[in-house]
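Hi all, long-time lurker, first post. I run a small reading group and we've been trying to get comfortable going from sequence to structure in the token notation. Rather than ask abstract questions, I figured I'd post a concrete chain and ask someone more experienced to write out its structure so we can walk through it together at our next meeting. Sequence below, copied exactly:
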Amino acid sequence: MSFRAKIEQTAKKKESNIVLACDFPFEKPEKRKDLFSKAESVLEAAHRYICAVKFNHHLVLPLGTFDGVQKLVKKVHDLDLTAIMDCKVNDVGSTNQVIAEYYYAAGFDALIANPFIGWEEGLKPIFDVAIRLQRGVILLVYMSHRAAAEGYGMTIVDAETGKKVPQYVSFARKTLKYGADGAIVGATYPEKISEVHCILGETVPIYSPGIGAQGGAVQLALKAGARYLIVGREITLTENPAKMAKKIRDLARSVE
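-- Answer (accepted) --
Happy to help. Here is the structure in token form:
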């Protein structure tokens, strides 16, 4: 089964479009076991109210890909969820292929890549590996942080049309052209979500990070066209992750 089919199936079954960003603050090396336990505890608490889990370097660096993180990915699958690696792949093709092979071998169902690297000897090797292994690729179209406009908002000359367009518009079109499984657009910029959704329609689902801690609002993101909401610190750093995950899930359901 393809990644997109898996996450859609899980979202329907769980009645949730919430992706948990399993991110935690820096911990000293001697506390790595505590970090693993913390992540496992949050997964156990929140799994009923989410459809997927997104990992970043917050856990990969201290725990290791084939040590702690692979165990957590197995836990995600045991809880009937999908696992996304937010590695933001952005290197030459040969390196990208190795990155994709290792993360997929660790059990990840999809990874996030940066369209800045282009297709030939850039993104293509990632997609080749994903297709072979029936995994997913999600592309960064517009990030959620304050300085996002400095890169993703630049005006460029589109190579195909010869017309000036914002960088994120070109990236949105590439998600269609390359057959990506998703597009990242920050929930902190609902106007960008709306614009990208006009390009993608229902062909490519939009994933929106930045809910809560960065100021993104559930209602605005969904009404603008986001399909999945990525929520991290609002859930991982609260005293009651289950209660918060349910609250956000229920709020999202009320918009639908």
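A couple of things your group might point at:
The mean pLDDT is 95.
The radius of gyration is 17 Å.
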